[in-house]
Structure formats: C-alpha cells, structure tokens
Write a structure and sequence with these properties.
Layout lengths: L1 H14 L16 E2 H11 L4 H12 L11 E2 L11 H4 L16 H10 L4 H26 L12 H4 L26 H4 L8 H16 L7 H4 L4 E2 L1 H21 L2 H18 L3 E2 L4 E2 L2 E2 L4 E2 L17 H13 L28 H13 L3 H18 L4 E2 L6 E2 L5 H15 L1
Antiparallel strand pairs: 1-2, 3-6, 4-5, 6-7, 8-9
The structure holds (2R)-2,3-dihydroxypropanoic acid (DGY).
The site of (2R)-2,3-dihydroxypropanoic acid has 4 residues, from loops.
Length: 421
C-alpha cells in the first residue's frame, strides 16, 4: 500500500516535470511557482537528489538584482493562465511576476542538506545557493519592514499564497477596483468557480498589480505606496524559520556574516511575533499595518506560525485550537464555527497538505507529537480517499481544485518518510 502510494506520488512529480522546473499542475498553473518549487524539491529528494537541487537553482536563476525572488517564472508562454507576462509588465529577460511568495527556500535547503545521501554533492550545490537566499532575506527586511519592527508585510494576497483567505476581507476594503483594465479569468475554465476566489477579489488582485506596475516595480517604493500591507504570522513564521535554518547552514559553511545576519533576523522576528498573539483565539492573528490593528480572523495563517520556534506554551495552545476545530480532517484553513467559513472555497475552509506539513513539523519540534501525528495521519487519509488534489473539504474529505497536484504529491513523500522514520 505504502509502495503504491509512493510510486503514485513519484509519477505525479515526473508528469509535471518540465526538465529544470516543475509546474504545480497542468492547465491551471502552467509555469514555475516559487514556494511550490521549494516544497516540490522536498519530494524530489526521495528519488533524485540532484534534480531536487536543480528545482531551487532554476528558481534563483530568476532572482531580481534587488534580491527579490518572484512568485511566478513564465518560462514558456501559455494562454491558459491569467494574468500572464504582459499584465505584469516586469520587463525581465525571462518574464516573471513582480511580487514574491513565502520564503520556504532556506528551510528547504536545510532539509535537503541534512538528509542528503551524497553530502559532498549537497555541499557544492548549497554553497552556490546560500548567498542568493541570504540576499532574498535581506531584501525582505529592507523593503517590507521599513520601520525595523522585525516582521515583514505582504503587499498582495498572492504573496501569502492564501489568495482568498478571510484574513484579507477587511484590508481589501482599502483597495479600490475602479479603473482596472477589463480582463477574462482563466482559472475558472480549469476549476469549479465555486471553489475559487470571487470576481470582486480578482478585481482587487488586479488593481494592486496595475498599481505596482505603474510604479515600474521598484520594490523599494511598493511598501509605502500600497494600500494593502498585512503582517501575516504564517508568512513571517516561514521567513523566520528560513532565517534560522540559513544561519545554521551558513555557520556550517563558515559564512559567518550570513550566519550572524540571519540569526539576528530570526531572533528579532521571534520576539516581534508576540505582538500578533491573541489569547482569545488561542493563536496568532494577522495585523493590518495600515490601521495598526489585529484582524479578527482566526485563519490557518495564525496556526502555521508554529513552523518557527514559538514558545512551547504557544505551540500547546495552537494544538488545542486545532482540536477545537472539530472537523473530520485537520487542519481547516478557516475555523468552521466562524460564519465566514466555506468548506470548498480555496483558502476559506479547505485543508492544504503543504500547510499541514509545515504545521506538523513545527508542532513536533515543540513537543506536540500527538497533534503532529494526527495531522500527518489525516493528510494521508485524504490522499487515500480523494487522490492528489490541490485541496480538500475538511468535513467530507472531498478532493477540490486542480488534480495531479505536484506539491501535494511531494508532501505525501515527506509524510510517508515521517511515518516510517
Ligand atoms: C493564482 O493565480 O490563483 C495564483 O494563486 C496566483 O499566484
């Protein structure tokens, strides 16, 4: 059974492999996505370590001179996706989007390196990537934390990867929709529209893209010019964990400056995370940097915070909060007792395996083994029930969104390895 599942996961990674990078799924997402790729590498390492390093190297080959690593690399044209390169208008040698995504790379490098079957080979690949990832982290804190608070802001929901989370409903009130160029969505041709973001949300996504394009994608200007600036605990936790992992790797390679810099980012970030804790919700919350207030939305972003080294009592509260969700499958991207919960609509309720993986990893490190084991078991059960989908209904387990999904398959290989460790 385990072998069959493992082989099925490997097949999906191979079907979606385009040589130097992997598409998230055929049709719906035909290019290279940033955090998809880094998490995909974790699956690839189980059958082809060299290929796993290539996945991340390809992504970093398209890093901008300022240090930003874009969220999409448009390697080959494909009309099946909107918004494509001309809408972004970033004017790069190989077209890319102009925003970024969760900084999983530092964590992925550490996992690839620590578990490498061929350490000498891993060391060579790591040495070349290390300064690039360090430049990305530096860029984050310079441009997205201009006041030096220790936490970075996202300027577009697509940066968090949790496109239509309830977290953005209130901040989106400050984003207009007037004046945007008329457009035709493509995502709803590939997936059920009732499982995807609404038109109103798409209008705002596009308004932000056009606003940033008018600023010629000068990433030093976008933060202050954006009406949408949200400090997301999940996004920050990923960056903090990546900084701490990169610091360890740099220390090992004797790159003392990179080690010290990233250790500082991680420590400062961890202290600042406390400002996002909500005792009432038993988890962290997003903060709207425009209003200066926490956002009353107990989404999975505040649970994903467990991915970095939060205090152990906070991790224990988060484990209890997940139990209180009372869904058949954990972890719902939004709690079912909130009236805004929508079991099938993308990030407003469904379970995502990548998020489960990072939460389980963090909780296990914080001593919450039972909670981590349950998340891992639920994740594999979802696969047995519905196959390798993009996301799942947390109540019925129904498979939703795109099928034959790359990062879901990659996470299955990781969960299986965890079960048999
Ligand atoms: C999409 O197009 O749905 C993506 O999430 C944006 O990256």
């Amino acid at each position: 059974m385990t072998d069959a599942l493992r082989n099925a996961a490997i097949d999906i990674l191979k079907i979606n492999d385009r040589g130097q990078y992997t598409v998230p799924t055929k049709g719906l997402y035909p290019f290279q996505w940033n955090w998809d790729s880094c998490l995909t590498a974790l699956g690839q390492r189980h059958f082809d370590e060299a290929r796993a390093w290539t996945e991340i190297e390809t992504l970093f080959a398209h890093q901008w001179p300022c240090g930003m690593v874009p969220h999409i690399i448009f390697h080959q044209m494909d009309d099946g996706y909107f918004p494509g390169p001309t809408v972004w208008g970033t004017n790069r040698p190989v077209p890319t989007s102009g925003i970024t995504q969760p900084a999983v790379a530092g964590f992925a490098l550490k996992r690839l390196f620590d578990r490498a079957q061929d350490p000498a080979h891993a060391m060579t690949r790591l040495r070349a990537l290390l300064p690039k990832v360090a430049a990305w982290h530096r860029w984050f804190y310079a441009t997205r934390d201009p006041q030096g608070e220790g936490l970075v802001a996202i300027l577009h929901p697509w940066e968090a990867g949790r496109d239509n989370s309830v977290d953005w409903d209130a901040p989106f009130d400050q984003v207009p929709t007037d004046g945007i160029t008329p457009y035709t969505r493509r995502d709803t041709l590939h997936a059920d529209p009732s499982h995807r973001p609404t038109k109103d949300q798409y209008d705002r996504y596009l308004w932000l893209v056009e606003h940033f394009r008018a600023l010629e994608w000068d990433t030093s200007k976008l933060h202050d010019a954006s009406p949408f600036q949200v400090v997301d605990p999940g996004f920050n936790a990923i960056l903090i964990r990546a900084c701490s992992d990169l610091a360890d790797l740099a220390g090992f390679l004797g790159e003392e400056q990179i080690a010290a810099e990233n250790r500082h980012f991680a420590q400062r970030g961890l202290s600042a995370m406390e400002s996002l804790w909500s005792p009432r919700h038993g988890q962290y919350l997003c903060k709207d940097r425009i209003t200066g207030k926490l956002i009353d939305s107990a989404s999975v972003g505040g649970i994903l915070a467990a991915f970095c080294d939060i205090p152990r009592e906070r991790a224990a509260s988060i484990a209890a909060t997940i139990r209180n969700h009372e869904t058949r499958y954990s972890v719902a991207s939004h709690p079912p007792h909130d009236p805004r919960f929508d079991a099938k609509r993308y990030w407003r309720g469904p379970v995502w395996l990548v998020v489960n993986y990072m939460i389980a990893d963090g909780l296990a490190r914080a001593g919450q083994q039972d909670a981590a084991a349950r998340i891992s078991a639920d994740s594999l059960e979802l696969i047995h029930k519905g196959g390798f989908a993009e996301y799942y209904d947390p109540i019925t387990g129904e498979a939703l969104g795109g099928g034959q999904f790359t990062w879901t398959a990659a996470m299955v290989l990781e969960f299986l390895a965890r079960e048999t460790a």
